Every structure is written in C-alpha cells, then in structure tokens.
Amino acid sequence: MASWKTIVVLLVIAAGLGGFFYYDTYSLNPKREKAESAKGRIWTVEPKEIEGVIIVRKSETIRLKRAADGGWEMIEPIKARADRAVVDDVVTGLATARMDREIDPNPAKAADFGLDPPEAEVRLEVKGRADPLVLRVGAKNPTGVWVYAREGAKPAVITLSENISRDTSRPPADFRDRSVIALDRRSVTGLDLDVGGDQIGLAADEPGKWRLVKPRALRADPDLIAEFLDKLEGAKAIEFVDDAPKALQPYGLDKPSRVTVWIGKDKDRSSRTLLVGRAVPEKKGVYVKRDGEPGVILTAEALWTAFPKTVAALRDKVVMSYAPDKLAKLEITHGREAVVLEKEGAGWKLTAPEALKADTGAVTQYLWKIRDLRALGFLAEGAAEVPRYLSRPEVSVKLWETGAKEPKTLLLQTSPERRGGQPAAVAAVQGEGPVVLVEGKALAEFTPDVATLRDRTLFPAFEIGDVKRARVTGGEKPLVVEKSGEADWKVTEPSRGSTKEGRVSSLLLGLKALRWKEIASKGGDEAKFGLDKPELEVTVFKNGGAELATLQVGRTDGAVTYVKLKAEPGIFAVSSKDLEDLRKARTDIPA
User: Fold this and answer.
1) In what order do the strands lie in the sheet with 157-161?
2) What is the pLDDT of residues 275-317, one digit of tens each?
3) pTM summary value
4) CA-CA-CA-CA torsion sign (541, 545, 548, 554)
C-alpha cells in the first residue's frame, strides 16, 4: 500500500502537469498559432485594426474610411456608402499579404518591375499608429501569377499574389454599396407611396399584417407587399449613371414616383425615401435616386414591375377568410340541394342529404378553394350593397367556426361581365362586403355533389403495423404470407419461404389507397359483374387472427374493373391500373 508521502508527491506532479496543460492550451498555443499564421506576411497587423484605406493610382485616388457601425464609407472620388463585404475582403487581402520571394534587394531600375511609377500605391491607416503602412504595387511577372511590389521605403522588390494587383486595380464602382436602399424588410412598419400625385399610405401593426390607411382604411394584400419589399430590399445598382447630374428630367426624376419606407416604431422610427423615374427597356432597368443624394442609379426593371401603383392593386383580394383549425361545420347550397358536412375528429362526415363518411382530402381541397378565391375587381364596398348585387345567389357556402354564434356565408352569382375574355361571377360575404368579381368557374367549383365529397375508400381503415397475415386467392393454390416480428414477412403457403423486400407492404398500401370511381350496383347482380366467381380475392387478417376484410375482383371492362367487399353487397368500379400490383402479388411476393 502506497505511503501518504508517495500520494502527496503524485498529486503535486498531477497538479503541475494539469497547470502546464492549461497554460499550453490557453496561453502558449494561441500565441504559437498567431505566430504561425503571421509567417511570411509583410505586416503583422490584423484586418480589424485597419481604419482607413487609400489607393493612389496614376489617374485617380480611392479613399475609404471605416464607419462607426463597423462598415465602410467612400470619401474619394465621391462621398458614398461603400460595400462592406467587398472592402472587408480587400482589406483582409492587403493586411495579410504574404511575400513569395525577394526578386532584387536593390534594383538599378525600378521601372523594369513597373514600380517607377507604381501601378498603385496603397496606404493602410492602422488604429494607434501615426504613420500608414505603405505598399507600392507594380507589374505582373511573366507568368501572371505574381505581382512585383515594394513595402514602405524598402528598396527590395518582392513578389506577392496576383490578388493584390486585382484588388488594387478595381474601379471605384466596385467599392460602392450597390444596394439601392438599405433596409431589413422584417423591420418595416410603414410605407408611403406617391404615383403620379396619388398618395397611398400603408401600416403594419405586426409583421406581415398590412392595412391601407390612406386614402381610406382597407385591408391590404400582404403577399403583394411582401413581394415588393423583397424586390426593394434586394435591388442593386446595375450602373451608377451620373453622380452629379445637371438635370433630372432626362431620367424622369424631375416628377418621380416615390416610396418612403418607415423603420421601427415610436421614438425609434426613421424613414428613407427612394425616387423612381423613367424605365429603360433596352437595358431592362429603371432610373432611381436616393432622396437627399444627387446620384442617379440604374436598377433592374423588376423593382418598378413590383411597385404597387394603385389602391386596387394593394387591396387584399381574399374574398373569404376563416380559421381552418376552428371549422366545425360546412353547408353548401346550390338551387334546392344542400350538402352538409360536420367535423368528426380529424376528419369529416356528411350529414345531409344522407349520412355518409366524407373524404377528408376532398373536403380539404374544397376548403382550400374557398381560401384561395381572389377578387378580380371590386364592385361595391359596404354590406348594404350585397343584396343589390346578389339578389338571387346561385351558390351559398356557410362555414361555422367553433365558438362563433353565426356562420360566415359566401354568396356567388353569375355576372354579365367578362374579365380577360372569360366569364365572371359576383361574390361577397353576407353581411360584410365588399362585393367583388371572381372567376366564373368558381360557380362550378363550389358546387360539388355528394359523390365528390363522400369517402371512396373501399377497404376498411387499417395500419400496416396492425396486420398479421394476408391471403391472395386466385388460380390453383392460394398465397399466404405471415408477419414475424415487427416487419419480417414469410410465405407460409403454398410452401414456406421468404418474401421479396417491400412487396407485402406494397400490396397492403395498394389496398389502403384503393378508391372507387362509381357505384355500379347496390348488390344482387354479382354474376353480371363477374363477382359470382371472382378472378381474385385478397383477405387481410389483424393481429390476433380476426379477419379485417376480403376484397373480391370481378370482370374487367377496359379501363375499369368491378370489385366488392365479400361481406357487403355494394359493387364498385375501380381503375384497372390500381389493381395491377394485386394481380401480380402471387408471383411478385415470394423470393
């Protein structure tokens, strides 16, 4: 057994090793990494320490200064916002430039290397340093991979990456911020538009929910506004046309359209305005100008295309809104016929004209059509105008929401008007307004019959995991498969063996998905449809051995085949294609 002195010595050694590991990891290692990264660099400065960049060329000077927000401003040749990403990239390349090799310690003729005079002289203004770092950039070497340079007042000619030549020869426009207007559309709380003297005001009480406040209070189209803000935020300068135009008339900016974007709320609210002038089709652009700045910019015509120009364009064109998760009942009336559906768990059931299970998918599609119905034009505003335009509605759709006292009722009636050469219909929500024109096809789309909405599933509902055994009968010997474990299917008849992967699941999925096209008979005439002697029978057994159902397949008549459930009288026509996997099961399933 170790003595206490030995234990103390071991603890001291362990503590010492731990302390060295900590010192090496958190103190020495970063210093080594920093020293390693600085190898070969002409300066040891870091890009974040650079506060100004001056590039002097034979014909021009570019001066850039770091702004208070960490971005960059262009001071020369014009005062303008700079493109932060571009300038940061150039600054990083210059600050971390590495020397490839020294070509000549003191050349007799610097001009031989394009350094008398240089192609560009770069001055980096460094925080806490009085004098700038200077780099003179000359010509490229014969291979074009390197560029000759001189650092500061040193006479030696060195070679640097050609990237230095590329960055220091960029035109001034490359350094300018090409964003037409700086904004984050998620922070936009208001818009003021002026088109041809017509002024429109919009407000967003919360992100994505817009309303018109001028010239009158109306719901606004959130999708149209979102598209416009997306184009506005993403608009870039194709060309800086004129930084000091003598006149704005040639650009259509003497009488421009305007958009003022409001950012934030209350005391933090601020705005910025963009003027939009003449379109330039041959350049696929439009002239714009930032309010308060002299320069004229050409940007993509998509901005003007998306620019909302009228109140009618900005209005919310949703005819009827509802909360899908709160719907409890739906009633569709067409002429004297009424179809009523009620929510049943996660699905729907028909309660009139007869009680039937509904096809949840078909009902959902119908409700989507109501949600997606859009106004083509506005005929009248108030609820009092609804009876005048819809005196004899041909279609009435009532939606009951949980907790609501009264249903929302959509009314539709044929209109004598046509839009885009196509028939139109008049629509309105009863007791609300406005009265609108919609596509005429809505009259047919909103009058489904019971056969369209009822559940057309043939096989009783089941989950594949709940199936224990399946039998396919047809021909001389039946095929029987049985599940072992979670999903391992084995053939038990006519002889034992394995199954091809996924084939039993495909058979069961085919039964679940099978839908009838029409009711051929309510029963009693099986022989007429070849079901007195079925071509094929498929039986599914649940865990525990109970039979779920048996599908019988009868006569095929071209594109349709007649089928029925063995325990029920009804005979149905299904698509012959939907039975292909069932017919091939006896040969496809065994491995």
Assistant:
1) 80-81, 72-76, 61-66, 50-57, 120-126, 133-140, 146-151, 157-161, 101-104
2) 999 999 999 999 999 999 999 999 999 999 999 999 999 999 9
3) 0.72
4) positive
